Amino acid sequence: MSRFKLPTRDLTFRLDGGQGKAVLCVHGMTGAPGEMKFLAKRLHKRGFSVAAPLLAGHGVDEATLLRTRWTDWLGSVREAYHTLKRDHDEVAIAGICVGGALGLALAAEEPSVAGVAVYSMTYRYDGWNMKHWYSAIAPFAEPFAGLPLVRRMSFVEPYPFGLKDERLRDGMTAAQGAVIPGALDRVPLGAMAEMHRLAAHLDRVGPQIRQPVLILHAQDDDMSHPRNAYRLQETLGGSRVELHLLDDCYHMIHVDRQRDLVGDLTADFFGAPRAAVRPRVSEAANA
After folding, report:
1. Could you tell me the maximum CA-CA distance found in the chain, to the nearest angstrom?
2. Superfamily of domain 13-286 in the CATH hierarchy
3. What SUPFAM superfamilies does the record point to (predicted)?
């Protein structure tokens, strides 16, 4: 039995594509598996089995999230990975933001992970739309994150919600926040502090990662500047790293205007089981 309050319904999903290759799709901090469905369907179309787990403490409320640490989130990814690996010859991991960082953390301890795709890596919220008090004080609040008052402080993700696609972000505005079942529309500082601790862990274990890593990041990311992607690339100096900057999306690259390109670049990088139309080279800028 989980020591955390559980969602009232199962938010996870799985798409079976055979017993060969599979991809574990990991959502971001305060997110939920539903945000990975565009990516999952694209990868499934390319021949992969796909599973999307729910990270520990997510899918309920802020109080439940704040009872977890990044190591609990990693435990969710580890458990889902081993479940998927039992039925497949090869399993890779693709994740957005914290989800991608967790995929790398697991790759550092599990040599059998076939590869990792990291979308919109975030060491710090330093994008062009994050020039608010919370992005300025968060790194300095981290030493005090154990204090209940500080941990519970939170901020609402600002418009345009990481989306360049007007139709998608207008839907977010109409819904007054998160529209993905189980996702939260506020980010507690306590959870952000855990994100920073996870990033510090990656700085330590990154040089040990030998699996191939794909880094995708938006040139105009509103939440995390491309410097986050370059920092990760430098940290992973010992592994095979491929980095692409996308030119028509914001932070949520796996659901925004270039989501199909994200899916196809990922499928190609993981060695898609069957052929599909490759994206035009002009749609992505190799860094």
Report:
1. 53
2. Alpha/Beta hydrolase fold, catalytic domain (3.40.50.1820)
3. alpha/beta-Hydrolases
